[in-house]
Amino acid sequence: MDEDYDVIVLGTGLTECILSGLLSVEGKKVLHMDRNDYYGGDSASLNLTQLYRKFRPDKAPPAELGRDRDYAIDLIPKFIIASGELTKILVHTEVTRYLEFKQIAGSYVYRDGRISKVPSNEMEAVRSPLMGLFEKRRAKKFFEFLQGWKDEDPATHQGLDLDRDTMKTVFEKFGLEPGTQDFIGHAMALYLDDDYITKPARPAYDRIILYTSSMARYGKSPYIYPLYGLGELPQAFARLSAIYGGTYMLDKPIDEIVTDASGKFVGVRSGGETVKAKQVIGDPSYFGAGQAAGGSGKVRVVEEGRVIRAICFLKHPIPGTDDLDSCQIIIPQNQVNRRNDIYIAMVSSTHNVCAKDVYVAIVSTIVETDIPEKEIVPGLQLLGPIYDKFVSVTPIFTPTSDGKSDNIFITRSYDATSHFETVVQDVEDVWKRIMEKDLVLKKRDLEVQE
Q: What stretch or stretches form a coiled coil here (predicted)?
């Protein structure tokens, strides 16, 4: 390991793997290291044995769950928005040739004690129990306004300014009820809380248009998902990096982040050898307090900074979802007197992530109290009988500096959102700090299995 590199990447989470792939394509000489013996870091997909070893070291997986190799259980559940930024990166880098995607069959929202499908077209909207007759008309006008908006044509603005007026003003103009605002803000714009309402409407407008255009691409739901689990995503980008000369080392302890007298990054020590590079990128776990020397003080926990996730094995689809093989359910915070939404993501054997007749549902939210498990009860109650469940509470870390002064670039932890848009924002942010230019993506189209 005596050769020098342009960039050393620590951790094989999706963010790190996308960056190493993009940097390799750009002609950078990349060395990618991970202390784990599997790809994906925090965003890995584990087989049965790995899952039980992580959560129940003293217990073997029950034989009735079937074969180890039939499982690829995501540690962090997220779906891909069909027209979203991650799709653009997948298509731009052509890593789609290593992946197959399947649609998520439905998107639901919890309201007044039951779940209802988020309408995927006008016919469903007309039949939807989410709104009364008059409210449907108001909502139709609201969506027509959004779809018809053209920045350069004031006639489409109806007296509103998306960059100045708040989302509250827009909702009020169309007379939308609080329940409808809830459903639009949380099940379509996918906000975790209600802070967006008092801010300018433009970001919410962008999010709603992203949702509706993603829905229009494949019908049913705006989400797609890779066969064999999300752990396939980092591996696909690792393959891309390798094609362009990137070097990978798994199961490699990282003993020290080596810096010079002024605190600038020099290299990484593993055992008795040190490998040198100009820059290092890594996930926060390599720089936390008590980690490799020079690490402490480089990351901090964000406000409301813990996520609880419960991975649940079911022997049946989620009740009330028309026996679909996959779905997302959003429980808006107002419905359960919380500050943050609760998410449920369910996948099954049709996605090659578990044995036949087993369903995997993951319930997650941002922790608000001292009893995190109690906070996800509204989600767990929707699942019906649970065969087994694995609960984790993890902190969300963010870097304390931009890394330009010491050449140490740290990514953010995965947040509580149900999709990858914030992951891509982090990729674009780190890329700009390292390369001092924006990440520009080409547009092509993505193949998805019905």
A: none
Q: How far apart are CA 263 and CA 240, in angstroms?
A: 32
Q: Give the Cα separation of 119 and 116 in Å (integer).
A: 9
Q: How many domains does the chain have?
A: 1
Rounded Cα distance between 359 and 344, Å, is 12
Confirm whether 400 is domain-assigned: no
Percent of the chain scoring above 70 in pLDDT = 95
Asked if residues 12 and 32 have their Cβ atoms less than 8 Å apart, the reply is yes
Q: 407 in a domain, yes or no?
A: no
- CATH number of the structural domain spanning residue 136: 1.10.405.10
Other beta carbons less than 10 A from residue 104's beta carbon: 25
Tens digit of each residue's pLDDT (9 = 90 or more) over 377-435 = 999 999 999 999 999 999 999 999 999 999 999 999 998 888 998 999 999 999 999 99
Question: And the tokens for 205?
Answer: 């407008």
The whole-angstrom separation of Cα 14 and Cα 434 is 18
Q: β-pairing, 30-33 with 247-249?
A: parallel
370-400 residues labelled b (16+ CB within 10 A) or e (exposed): eebeebbebbbebbbeeebbbeeebebbbbe
